[in-house]
Amino acid sequence: MILKTLNMYLNYKTYHSLFLSLAFIFCSTLSCFGQEEVPFIKKGNEAYRKGDLMLADSAYTQALGKKYDSQEALFNAGNTYYQLGNAASQLQNNPQAQQQLQQQGQGQKMDFAAVSKGAFEQAQKKYEELLKQDIEDKTKKAKAYHNLGNTFMQQQDFQKAAKQYKDALRNDPTNENARYNLAYALDKLKNQQNQNQNQDQQNQDQQNQDQNENQENQDQNQDNKERDDQNQEQNQDNKEGDQENQQNQEQEGKDEQEQNQDQQQGNEEGKGEEEEQQQQQAKPGQMSRDEAEKMLQALMQQEQELQDKNGKKEKGRVIKIEKDW
User: Fold this and answer.
1) Which of 81, 77, 60 is nearest to 130 (CA)?
2) Contact in structure between 41 and 122 (CB atoms under 8 Å)
3) Domain limits of the chain?
4) Fewer CB within 10 Å of terminal CB in the chain, N or C?
């Protein structure tokens, strides 16, 4: 289904400014007509020239079944897969063509990106199998390196592509296609490296920014924590102050209450003394103990003075004092 869909779309031409060596370059020198793979290779080449990649792929596969290391079949099979990859890649970027295929009942569930990737990988595999062999013709070997470089270009691996083009030029310095594609690959590689460098710088800047933001957030969190601690301490101080004020107020209330009680008691005592004085004033015939004692002392003093005075007048007289019963 995939090959049929791509076959319907493919218009045989050169793709993406990359020069692909023609599929029948190895076929022009085929001289071993007695070999079993040759008829299939010829059939594949004819189908390839007509753009029938499905038939070409089938013919080259049959040829490799007859001779697995056939250089001609490997090279041309690689070219076929390369063209299939190009067709799928163009379909991937052409919604109008996809719509037309869907209207014809084709390509409804096809992942053209995956098809393209798989086709280029298959082409790469065929070229690498070919280059493992001893290819005596330097020109043919250069074309194999060149086409292998094209598969890496389509996979965006510009560094490997440049290496293959250099190997192509080492084997055939006159290969202008390889020279052109080498310059193209190196330019792409430079741009890719600049983009990667810019991306790395952007990633580093973003990382630094994230670190700065994290540090700022940590600092802000620390400030908030310290502020919360200060507020908590202040609240604790205020609470203790409120408790102290409440205790002072309670103590002042108690003191005031005791003072009022003392004042009330003093008023009651004063009132009692006042009543007692009033009672004493109300009974003038009564005398207090202190007043009686003072009066007695005064009388005794007077009597003593009187005795002293009479003693002077009656000197030597004995006075008999009788007890008063």
Assistant:
1) 77
2) no
3) 2-191
4) C
User: Regarding the domain delimited by 2-191, which CATH topology (the fold level of the hierarchy) does it fall under?
Assistant: 1.25.40
**Please, which residues bridge with residue 15 across strands?**
18
Amino acid at 90: Q
CA dist 95 → 14, 18, 103, 116, 250 (Å): 21, 23, 12, 16, 90
231, amino acid identity: N
Mapped onto helix, strand or coil, the DSSP state of residue 21 is: coil
Please name which of 35, 116, 47, 114 lies closest in space to residue 76, comparing C-alpha atoms: 47
CB 155 within 8 A of CB 122: no
Pair of tokens at residue 324: 């008063």
- Amino acid symbol at 54: M
Q: What is the pLDDT of residues 258-312, one digit of tens each?
A: 777 777 776 666 666 555 555 555 455 556 778 778 878 888 888 788 877 766 5
Q: DSSP secondary structure string, 25-78? A: GTGGG---TTSTTHHHHHHHHHHHHTT-HHHHHHHHHHHHHH-TT-HHHHHHHH
In tens, the pLDDT along 82-112 reads 999 998 888 888 888 777 777 766 545 678 8
Rg (alpha carbons) of the chain, rounded to whole number: 64
Alpha carbon distance 8, 256 (integer Å): 112
Per the CB < 8 A criterion, the answer to whether 110 and 5 are in contact is yes
